[in-house]
Write a structure and sequence with these properties.
single chain, 214 residues, 8-stranded parallel sheet, 8 helices
Amino acid sequence: MSEMQPVKIAPSILSADFSNLGREIADVERGGCDVIHVDVMDGHFVPNLTLGAPVVKSIRKTTQLPMDVHLMIDEPIRFVEDFKKAGTDWLTVHVEACRDLPGTLDAIRKAGMKTGMSLRPGTSVEALEPYLDQLELVLVMTVEPGFGGQSFMADQLEKVRWLRKRFQGMISVDGGVNAQTAHEVRTAGADILVAGTAVFGQTDRAAAIRGLRG
């Protein structure tokens, strides 16, 4: 993908003000974002604990934008139906978190959601190769999953370049994406930029989103 082609911007609600979540989402939607990114952590696969399907269901009432739910949880197949019922559009699971990856992807597909897969920075991108024809989205982590505000790991962009040559679906990048790093991410070939504090941490969210698009 040429860097001149438009990318989608997916603000991560992990960095939003949860006491005003509906207004926060409306603000970034007015600002021109394309997707709402929701991080779900179980305190086991990653050391942090966030939200679950009930919050996703509440968000669904506030926006018609696609919701990309990133499950950083062990054995996510257990919760596929819950997140479908909550209004999830794209469900992304970790290659490291599933005992039965084909079965998990099949369950997501049968539930009517787009299938996504992610991997930790330390996991080789080749681990995804057997599943690429079953995926519609690959999420490349450019920080260790579990906490916001980490430094961007530029070496992970080699995974994006590898995928761009082999994968026909969407490539998303999450972690340390901001106005300074977005150019690198776009140039590597990403389709979607996930950004937390780079959007929700700014007073003018529309300007922040435009800055990420380049």
